[in-house]
Amino acid sequence: MAEKHPLDLHSLTFTGQLSGRCKIPGDKSISHRSVILGSLAEGETRISGFLRSEDCLATLNIMRQLGVNIVEDGDDLVVTGVGLHGLQPPAGHLDCGNAGTAMRLLSGLLAAQRFSSTLVGDESLSGRPMGRVITPLTQMGAQIKSDEHTAPLEFSPSIQMKAIDYHSPIASAQVKSAVLLAGLYADGVTTVTEPNKSRDHTETMLKGFGCNLQVDGLKVSVHGQPHLRGQAIKVPADVSSAAFFMVLGLCHPDADLLLENVNINPTRDGVIKILQAMGGRLSLENPRTEAGEAVADVRIQSSQLRGIDIPEALIPSAIDEFPVLFIAAALANGTTRLTGAEELRHKESDRITVMIKGLQLLGVDCKELPDGAEITGGPLHSGMVDGHGDHRCAMSFLLAGALRPEVDTVVRGCHNIDTSFPEFFTLVEQLGMRHQQPVPVVTIDGPSGVGKGTTSALLAARLGWHLLDSGAIYRSLALKVMNDDLDPANEAQLAEAAKALRLSFQADGQHARILLDGQQVNDQLRSEACGDMASQVAPIAAVRQALLQRQKAFQQPPGLVADGRDMGTVVFKSAPLKVFLTANAEERAKRRHKQLKEKGVDVKIRDLLRDIEARDHRDSTRKVAPLVPAMDAHVIDTSDLSIEEVLAQIMNLVGQHVKV
Ligand SMILES: O=C(O)C1=C[C@@H](OP(=O)(O)O)[C@@H](O)[C@H](O)C1
Ligand SMILES: C=C(OP(=O)(O)O)C(=O)O
């Protein structure tokens, strides 16, 4: 599968009321299974409501590569089954993309075929543990080659699968399903017992296809060599996708939402129980059974959620919903505690680390536990969080941003949302949310004399991006104050002047021509007097506020390099890359001395050093926007580096964080 762009910045904002009915797309787990079992059946299987997400399409394509005819008929899929022994050797590798379910379920199937095959996946999937299926399948006689129990997985032709009685150390529907699928090819009865009940869609569907299968509590037994008969399958709405809208509705101040036809299978309804225990007004209307699966319409009304200790028994039935439950916890009153959920570290990302890091960045009081997390609800801060290419983490952070319109939340790493929920952005827009893809910003902050200005100008030129020299904006105001003889102590007058400032920047090679009231003022802005005045007017809160929107307006495609002192901490809090340059005061005094000497100005280094130290103290201790690195800034000490060396380090960071 082609590598997708990992930056992929998105944000959602929402201020309106939330009401109406919402059609959530089909269940991912049931969709995977419907094409696999339909392929192994005799006759035709018609699937309605199949989830056309990248994960399920990967499974569908693999079944086609194995010789199965699958066609679209309107919204339905029609699978012409080839029978248990009718699959054909594939021409090339079989690509599962990001889908753990595809890889683990198909391992059970391919381990039992009389031809060889290889399953591959994307970077995330290639790091996920496959030993959990390799172990039982090997006991059944499969020969699987892999490097450290991770993908690619190479299957040798099978001679004959042996029925086994397998006690799985983890509650995993993927493991259980892999063994049951391989068990279809064994002579005799294959049994899987799990420590806790995981989702049971494979069992339900196998029975529907006419397989002889018994469930006895945590034990499932399948009789090998069945004749599966093609079925009509109606895929209900995915409760895992519905979970995002449950949390959205509950945490929204004015919501009454109906999610239609949601799968509420008792092995999947943990999220509903947990949210109800947190005080969520969430009710099930019109409960019914369709194609062996329990479904209902789920009504969600605004609620004040409270923190709880999540019962460990509910973990398997809510395993994919913890990213969004973490958001619910961050918006609830009090503390939520989750333990016994180490499995979350083995999903598309380490979901404990990714979610807790992101929440911490948004200012939430929370911490990781080895097997869970502790989260105390409270206000959110602005920031850019990383979904790390995990669809569920990315969607969860986006909704947190939508629920807190007063802060600016940008989420990167959203490129895998289509693996489970391609309609996500369309649906949230239908509900009235504003979806934006913000222009990337690199902020370069630091005190004077660290090489900020030159570095930023060179970086903007190299990237072909816009440049904001925010210092020049403050200096221009200072110049205006001096030219028009304004009173630097009259804050209201200064704020008015800041708002009315007639300032423009014109590109001129690597630099910009700065025009104030139509006159080029670059040289005047660099004078010591102007610098001193700038440092007097810049700390005034009303001035900073008046200039804020003006600076934000520089964020234009294809990107912006913003040079200043509070670019990463105040103006562009959600920038994907924040750099803070430092250098020791002696070095900065030396650099300034050299600059002034070149201009024919004779000053003593000692005096410059004293001024620099005084200014550093003033800047870093002032109440409004003090000069400090943002929490997520990359600090580079430029004392012993040339401009080229600094630029090389920043370009490297751009490569990692912005233009990957
Ligand atoms: O069987 C399935 O369809 C799934 C089982 C779960 O994984 P585990 O079996 O690893 O718990 C779940 O996380 C995954 O999204 C889908
Ligand atoms: C874990 C998930 O899927 P998979 O294991 O199929 O990649 C998921 O969708 O949350």
Automatic annotation (TrEMBL):
<feature type="binding site">
    <location>
        <position position="28"/>
    </location>
    <ligand>
        <name>3-phosphoshikimate</name>
    </ligand>
</feature>
<feature type="binding site">
    <location>
        <position position="172"/>
    </location>
    <ligand>
        <name>3-phosphoshikimate</name>
    </ligand>
</feature>
<keyword id="KW-0067">ATP-binding</keyword>
<feature type="binding site">
    <location>
        <begin position="446"/>
        <end position="454"/>
    </location>
    <ligand>
        <name>ATP</name>
    </ligand>
</feature>
<dbReference type="Pfam" id="PF00275">
    <property type="entry name" value="EPSP_synthase"/>
</dbReference>
<dbReference type="InterPro" id="IPR001986">
    <property type="entry name" value="Enolpyruvate_Tfrase_dom"/>
</dbReference>
<feature type="binding site">
    <location>
        <position position="29"/>
    </location>
    <ligand>
        <name>3-phosphoshikimate</name>
    </ligand>
</feature>
<dbReference type="GO" id="GO:0003866">
    <property type="term" value="F:3-phosphoshikimate 1-carboxyvinyltransferase activity"/>
</dbReference>
<keyword id="KW-0028">Amino-acid biosynthesis</keyword>
<protein>
    <recommendedName>
        <fullName>Multifunctional fusion protein</fullName>
        <ecNumber>2.5.1.19</ecNumber>
        <ecNumber>2.7.4.25</ecNumber>
    </recommendedName>
</protein>
<feature type="binding site">
    <location>
        <position position="174"/>
    </location>
    <ligand>
        <name>3-phosphoshikimate</name>
    </ligand>
</feature>
<keyword id="KW-0808">Transferase</keyword>
<dbReference type="InterPro" id="IPR036968">
    <property type="entry name" value="Enolpyruvate_Tfrase_sf"/>
</dbReference>
<dbReference type="InterPro" id="IPR006264">
    <property type="entry name" value="EPSP_synthase"/>
</dbReference>
<feature type="binding site">
    <location>
        <position position="174"/>
    </location>
    <ligand>
        <name>phosphoenolpyruvate</name>
    </ligand>
</feature>
<feature type="binding site">
    <location>
        <position position="100"/>
    </location>
    <ligand>
        <name>phosphoenolpyruvate</name>
    </ligand>
</feature>
<feature type="binding site">
    <location>
        <position position="320"/>
    </location>
    <ligand>
        <name>3-phosphoshikimate</name>
    </ligand>
</feature>
<feature type="binding site">
    <location>
        <position position="28"/>
    </location>
    <ligand>
        <name>phosphoenolpyruvate</name>
    </ligand>
</feature>
<feature type="domain" description="Cytidylate kinase">
    <location>
        <begin position="442"/>
        <end position="654"/>
    </location>
</feature>
<comment type="similarity">
    <text>Belongs to the EPSP synthase family.</text>
</comment>
<keyword id="KW-0963">Cytoplasm</keyword>
<dbReference type="InterPro" id="IPR023193">
    <property type="entry name" value="EPSP_synthase_CS"/>
</dbReference>
<dbReference type="Pfam" id="PF02224">
    <property type="entry name" value="Cytidylate_kin"/>
</dbReference>
<comment type="subunit">
    <text>Monomer.</text>
</comment>
<comment type="function">
    <text>Catalyzes the transfer of the enolpyruvyl moiety of phosphoenolpyruvate (PEP) to the 5-hydroxyl of shikimate-3-phosphate (S3P) to produce enolpyruvyl shikimate-3-phosphate and inorganic phosphate.</text>
</comment>
<keyword id="KW-0547">Nucleotide-binding</keyword>
<feature type="domain" description="Enolpyruvate transferase">
    <location>
        <begin position="16"/>
        <end position="425"/>
    </location>
</feature>
<feature type="binding site">
    <location>
        <position position="392"/>
    </location>
    <ligand>
        <name>phosphoenolpyruvate</name>
    </ligand>
</feature>
<feature type="active site" description="Proton acceptor">
    <location>
        <position position="320"/>
    </location>
</feature>
<dbReference type="InterPro" id="IPR013792">
    <property type="entry name" value="RNA3'P_cycl/enolpyr_Trfase_a/b"/>
</dbReference>
<comment type="similarity">
    <text>Belongs to the cytidylate kinase family. Type 1 subfamily.</text>
</comment>
<feature type="binding site">
    <location>
        <position position="128"/>
    </location>
    <ligand>
        <name>phosphoenolpyruvate</name>
    </ligand>
</feature>
<feature type="binding site">
    <location>
        <position position="347"/>
    </location>
    <ligand>
        <name>3-phosphoshikimate</name>
    </ligand>
</feature>
<dbReference type="InterPro" id="IPR003136">
    <property type="entry name" value="Cytidylate_kin"/>
</dbReference>
<comment type="pathway">
    <text>Metabolic intermediate biosynthesis; chorismate biosynthesis; chorismate from D-erythrose 4-phosphate and phosphoenolpyruvate: step 6/7.</text>
</comment>
<keyword id="KW-0418">Kinase</keyword>
<dbReference type="InterPro" id="IPR027417">
    <property type="entry name" value="P-loop_NTPase"/>
</dbReference>
<dbReference type="InterPro" id="IPR011994">
    <property type="entry name" value="Cytidylate_kinase_dom"/>
</dbReference>
<feature type="binding site">
    <location>
        <position position="33"/>
    </location>
    <ligand>
        <name>3-phosphoshikimate</name>
    </ligand>
</feature>
<feature type="binding site">
    <location>
        <position position="351"/>
    </location>
    <ligand>
        <name>phosphoenolpyruvate</name>
    </ligand>
</feature>
<keyword id="KW-0057">Aromatic amino acid biosynthesis</keyword>
